[in-house]
Amino acid sequence: MDELLKFFDGDSWTLDYKKETLPTYEHYAHLVNWAVDDSNWPYLPIDLPNADYKSMFKEALQVKDLLVEHRDSESHKGWSSVCVHGEAYNRTRAWNDYEDNQGKTEKDIKYGYCKEVVDRCPIIYNFINSLPFTNLARVRIMYLEAGGYILPHNDRSWNKLNPLNIGLNQPEGCIFRMKDKGDVPFPVNGGACLVDISNVHSVWNNSSTPRVHIIVHGTQLEPFNKMVYDSIKKLCN
Ligand SMILES: [Fe+2]
Fold first, then answer.
1. Which of 51, 59, 207, 214 suits a disulfide with 166, CB 3.0-4.6 Å?
2. In angstroms, what is the span from residue 199 Cα to ligand 1's centroid?
3. Ligand 1 center–CA 145 separation, angstroms
4. Distance 201 CA to ligand 1 centre (A)
5. Separation of 196 CA from ligand 1 center, angstroms?
6. What residues does 68 pair with on adjacent strands?
7. pTM of the model
8. Peptide bond between residue 185 and the one before it cis (omega within 30 degrees of 0)
9. For 61, how many CA atoms within 13 A lie in the half-sphere containing its CB?
10. How far apart are the CA of 26 and the centre of ligand 1, in A?
């Protein structure tokens, strides 16, 4: 708890994109590539058209019986998840964390929609299926119970705006903070951000409502890159 209090000490702030200088570019894809790979931006809000966050939030709460405690070997509190798409609904960790996957490469891993979840979450299924992504890997619903927290950690060592984190809600009092980079600006009633999880980050749901997000790992297709471009232009102008 001391670690958490120390991490969340200080005022809330978020990156002001209007102060950021964009490089010159000939095609919008160049700007998107720069943003994702070279900007060192810690997070980037993305407008996802047609996202019915409220309905997806309700659906996600209906499959709580399938939740797997997340990173149970670590000291987080109230953090659990289930795969919408993955190796199996309860294989929520990265493929190479499983003993029976040792010696394989990710190409050997068979990902697919998890029937146990999508049969009960048709709105979530249709939305994820409509996202302009290919090579979908893990797509997980992540729960953080009221009062729960994810202790400060980072998930990789190199910078990249990835994965896509879709917040179905972000209760008042729940903060997703990145060390030295401010608070990730998820709207209370749902919204999405690309997040660079090489930054040390922590989430503290200091509220009386569960926080539910969907994390999407996959390859972005052209229409998604256009959404990223439109979001950058809106934020930076
Ligand atoms: Fe993380």
1. 214
2. 9
3. 16
4. 7
5. 9
6. 81
7. 0.96
8. no
9. 11
10. 34
Give 220's strand partners.
133
CATH no. for residue 198?
2.60.120.330
* Tens digits of residue pLDDT in 41-77: 999 999 998 899 999 999 999 999 999 987 776 789 9
- Cα of 203 vs centre of ligand 1, distance in Å, is 9
Domain that holds residue 171: 2-15+23-236
Q: What is the pLDDT of residue 77?
A: 93
**pLDDT given for residue 75 in this prediction:** 85
In three-state secondary structure terms, 43 is strand
Which two structure tokens, joined as six digits, stand for 60? 């996600």
Ligand 1 mean position, distance from CA 214 (Å):
13
Per the structure, the count of domains in the chain is 1
Q: Which amino acid is at 50?
A: N
The kind and range of the H/E element at 128 are helix 122-130
- How many Å lie between the centroid of ligand 1 and the Cα of residue 6? 18
Angle at 58 between CA 55 and CA 63, to 5 degrees: 130
Structure tokens at 35: 């943003």
Q: Cα of 197 to ligand 1 centre, how many Å?
A: 6
**Residues composing the chain:** 237
**Tens digits of per-residue pLDDT, 146-156?**
999 999 999 99
Over the stretch 120-131, which tens digit does the pLDDT of each residue have?
A: 999 999 999 999
Whole-angstrom Cα distance, residue 237 to residue 21?
11
Percent share of the chain, pLDDT over 70: 99
Nearest-angstrom CA–CA distance, 222 and 56: 25
Supply 181's token pair: 């980079």
229: part of which helix (H) or strand (E)?
helix 222-236
